[in-house]
Amino acid sequence: MLFFSDECFLMSSINNNNNNNNNKSSEMEEVCFVNNPKMEKLLIHMFELNYDNAKSLQSLAKYQEAAESCNVILNKVESTLPEGVPENFATDYKLQEIISKAVELLPELWKLSGNFDEAITSYRRALLTHWNLDKETTARIQKEFAVFLLYGGVDATPPKLRYQVEGSFVPKNNVEEAILLLMILLRDSSLKRIEWDASIIDHLCFGLSVSGGLEGLAKQFEELLPGVLERKLRYYILSLCYHGMGEDVVALNLLRILLSKSENPNCIKGLLLASKICGENLNFADEGVDYARRALPELQGGCALMGSVANCLLGISLSDEARCSVVDSERVKKHLEALQALKNAERTMIERDPKIIYHLSLENADQRNLDVALCYAKQLLKLEGESSLAGWILLARILSAQKRYSDAEAVIDAALDQTGKWSQKELLRTKAKLQVAQGRVKNAVETCTLLLALIHVQSRRAGVLFKGNCSHERSLELEIWTDLAKIYISLSQWRDAEVCLCKSKAISPHSASRWHAVGLFYQAKGLHKEALDAFVEALGSEDTYVPSLISTANILRQKGNNQSISLAETYLSAAVQLDRMNHSAWSSLGLVYKQRGKDYKASECFEAAEVLKESAPVEPFRQPYFF
């Protein structure tokens, strides 16, 4: 048992050390503490008193006082050993144990007291000061700090540079600091320095996802040593990363490996993700159908929400497969199956799912069930609190297909009133097309001009220099200049049309839509040879560009010879195959059949063209957005 005089001696020694600025004296006193068993016992006794006091205050919910009591221990150690605790500091394990517990407890107490700035300071102090902590204790502190930074809802000031080694990475915000800590933990886990903790992966995935660092996350998983993470889980997480990065082919290849017979062919999450990726690419539509159908039996009697998602993905892939079908009967069958799958998704969803409602509206619109499509589109807007740009545009397109142009424009105006300025671009583009459909060409020009000004102002504010063709903003600007050129062509304002075509050429000289507009320009001026060359250039850039297939066929048809008419029929058959709902393609094909004396086929084409024209929207229902 220690006597009061011993404690006074200890306090006196510590105070003397605080007031002594002589380096040699400090080093001698440090050696005294290291090699003096009596002093070590005195330290243990004092630190135990402070630590027990902190724990007692914590149990009484007096977190502020508890933190202050715990802080005394660390302050005394730092003042006595300013260079940190040496590895041979304690001959008795008890002393090191108390220091380790105090270092780990202090930030938790500050968090409980609501003093988050002090908690962050204590975490950094615990990790940046040499306390001679073991690897597991350090790992726990690193993980707790990372979790607090990610989910604590507190903006931490960046670490001070004086704590950093020269040339090292300095985190700029909470997420970067948390990611750095988690990457250190992941490295130590993979090198077997600490026990494996699967939650590190979860937190790292979250941190890198919210910071847009999916490429870095993929790299971390690829660099993990074999055996650290289960191979099946690695395939799935990597596929998620690459899908988020837009590398869908790479993601799909990883999922194919995961879902092979030798790995995990019945992985529900993998099947659903693979079906989702395939549903976004027409080339993989049949594969998407297969994955969704494989997932559905695995979900029988299970989660209703997952079953609803699987049916929705099945409907999307079936719809894509239908649009790729060559045989009419097969296409009709696939469309009906797609609609049924989406209805099954609607029936089994627990709550109204906007994605399912959107695709039900879209599929019905594609099949020209316009009243049903309109009903679903209105449901979608109500469900999302009239905040869905895609919902507003789809509703306007459906109304335009019903030839309710003024109503469609009113919908767009309502959307513009509820949408921020920088999100209005696609709405303005649709409005311009509605104005053209109503013959209000001057208003359409004004709308396009406003849209172009909005794009330019936004690009300057964001400091973006459009020097590539991959930017959505750049693609939208190209389409607007092309649309504006077509308007001027229809007004025979050749000079203005040429200016617009030059602007579009500066953005993308090889764009199929630009070359098509050039062809329309020459065709309107009666220069059919130059127009044909331009349309051929468009097809050279994109051989499935339907407007140029139709325009090329129309020029060839006008030549009147058998070879040209036969070639025109080939182009138009391809156009009809690519876009079954294009009334211009059917009408032109009917003219070709009429020239060739096939009156029955011609009448069928004209009838189809008339029906489709009556329900044609101002822009395709599935035209991609530039949001």
Automatic annotation (TrEMBL):
* Gene3D superfamilies in the record: Tetratricopeptide repeat domain
**Which SUPFAM superfamilies has this protein been placed in?**
TPR-like (SSF48452)
Q: Which SMART domains match?
A: TPR
- Name used for this protein in its record: Uncharacterized protein
Q: Which organism is it from?
A: Papaver nudicaule
